[in-house]
């Protein structure tokens, strides 16, 4: 079985990816994580590069596909 894409992510990256997967925008994420929007934008860009996502929509898809609770379709 292939290793999940998210296995190489840090806990902070997984948390960011989960919030992106929930459909939150930069401002909502910055409020949730108590970080400046600029910081969230930088971290999101780094996450896109790390996962090879072309845009935020692809990050959202990755999050929804790989961060589901066990046993959910």
Tags for this model:
73 residues, mainly alpha, Arc Repressor Mutant, subunit A, WH-like_DNA-bd_sf, Tscrpt_reg_LuxR_C, Response regulator, Sig_transdc_resp-reg_C-effctor
Compact description:
Helix content is 62%, strand content 0%. The chain starts with 10 loop residues before the first helix and ends in a 7-residue tail after the last helix. It has a single domain (11-66), classed as Orthogonal Bundle (Arc Repressor Mutant, subunit A).
Overall number of structural domains: 1
Radius of gyration: 12 Å
What is the CATH domain class? Answer: Mainly Alpha
Strand content: under 5%
Distance between the termini: 18 Å
CATH topology: the name is Arc Repressor Mutant, subunit A
Number of strands: 0
Which oligomerization state do the chains in this entry correspond to? single chain
What structural class should be given to the helix and strand makeup?
A: mainly alpha
Mean pLDDT: 87
- Could you give a short account of the major beta sheet? none
Number of helices: 4
- Morphology call: globular
| Unreliable residue stretches | none
Helix fraction by DSSP (H/I, runs of at least 4): 55-70%
- What series of H and E elements makes up the topology? HHHH
Assigned CATH architecture: Orthogonal Bundle
Look at the structure and name the CATH superfamily: Winged helix-like DNA-binding domain superfamily/Winged helix DNA-binding domain
């Amino acid at each position: 079985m292939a290793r999940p894409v998210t296995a190489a992510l840090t806990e902070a990256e997984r948390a960011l990816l989960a919030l992106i997967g929930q459909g939150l925008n930069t401002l909502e994420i910055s409020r949730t994580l108590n970080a400046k929007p600029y910081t969230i934008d930088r971290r999101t860009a780094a996450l896109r590069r790390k996962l090879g996502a072309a845009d935020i929509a692809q990050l959202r898809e990755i999050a929804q596909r790989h961060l589901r609770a066990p046993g959910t379709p």
